[in-house]
Amino acid sequence: MTAMTIKSITRYCSEILQNDKCKNLPFHNFAHTQEVIDNVFLISNAIGLQPKEVDFIAIAACFHDTGFSETYEGHEEVSKRLAAQYLSKTNCSQTEIERVLSCIDATKMPQNPLNVYDKVLCDADLFHLGTTNYMYRNMLLRKEWELFCDTVMTDKEWHLLNIKFLEEYRFKTAYGKEVLEKGKQENLNKLKQLIRIR
């Protein structure tokens, strides 16, 4: 896998994500995918993966939300199909393609990573749970659900749903457990505070 191939994959996926339905998604848009790619490199570097191993996780990150171009529910299956179609035309082996598809599959909620590569992408995808911009990202997700899923909740319902999610979610990598978990707990406390204030 060459740097040139990865660059062309990024360009191909960015075109999908910046066209069709994807460009109108407040949360699952190209900016999110770019962040996930950056998070993949950050986490992989922190846990000591080899550059060649990271390439395939980064490719999976490029494709992981492209399925939103066709469907909202079950978009991962479409993302896998788009990835397989594209990668079969490159010099990727079947084993390498399977690794990419496994990573994408693992991001399906509830996450079910089977190996370290899957775990890296899962944590990269939900990285924001442990950061200071969690509240802002969460607001974008709420807006997206209202626009694209007809899911409208009161503030209290939304906060309770997210409290439950944060309480149950477990980061998968050592980086997630050591670094992101602290931020996640802080965000959980902020949400609980909002419930108390109301």
Q: How would you characterize the overall build of this protein?
A:
The mean pLDDT is 93. The chain has helices at residues 3-17, 30-47, 51-63, 75-87, 94-106, 116-125, 134-148, 155-168, 174-197. The termini are far apart. Helix 2 (30-47) packs antiparallel against helix 3 (51-63). With 198 residues, the protein is an all-alpha fold. The protein is globular, with a radius of gyration of 17 Å. It has one domain (6-197): Hypothetical protein af1432.
Strand-and-helix sequence, N→C? HHHHHHHHH
CATH architecture: Orthogonal Bundle
The SS-based structural class is mainly alpha
Uncertain residue segments: none
Distance from N terminus to C terminus (CA atoms, Å) equals: 53 Å
Tally the beta strands. Answer: 0
CATH superfamily membership: Hypothetical protein af1432
Number of domains: 1
Gyration radius over CA: 17 Å
Q: What is the overall shape?
A: globular
Overall pLDDT score:
93
CATH topology (level 3) name: Hypothetical protein af1432
Protein name: HD domain-containing protein
InterPro entries: HD/PDEase_dom
Organism: Maribacter polysiphoniae
